[in-house]
Write a structure and sequence with these properties.
This protein is an all-beta fold and 68 residues long. The protein is 0% helix and 19% strand. It has a domain at 1-47. A hairpin with a 5-residue loop joins strand 2 and strand 3.
């Protein structure tokens, strides 16, 4: 009972283009989300909250975009 996820963050520019803000080098294996040393398998059929944090930071000044 495990799952791998890959999360990427994008910003929409006023010109309508997307700029990638962050894309981790590797996927996150959810069984190691709470503890990177000890594996905790997911429980089937049960809603679970998993907290995880990235070790890398990204900084960029974002412009306001109006979405209609």
């Amino acid at each position: 009972m495990d799952m791998d996820i890959d999360i990427a963050a994008y910003a929409l520019t006023p010109a309508g283009d997307y700029v990638r803000l962050f894309n981790p080098a590797d996927e996150l294996r959810l069984s190691y989300a709470a503890d990177r040393v000890h594996r905790h398998l997911l429980r089937a059929g049960e809603r679970q909250n998993l907290r995880f944090a990235g070790a890398r930071m990204t900084s960029r000044r974002l412009e306001a975009v109006l979405v209609w």
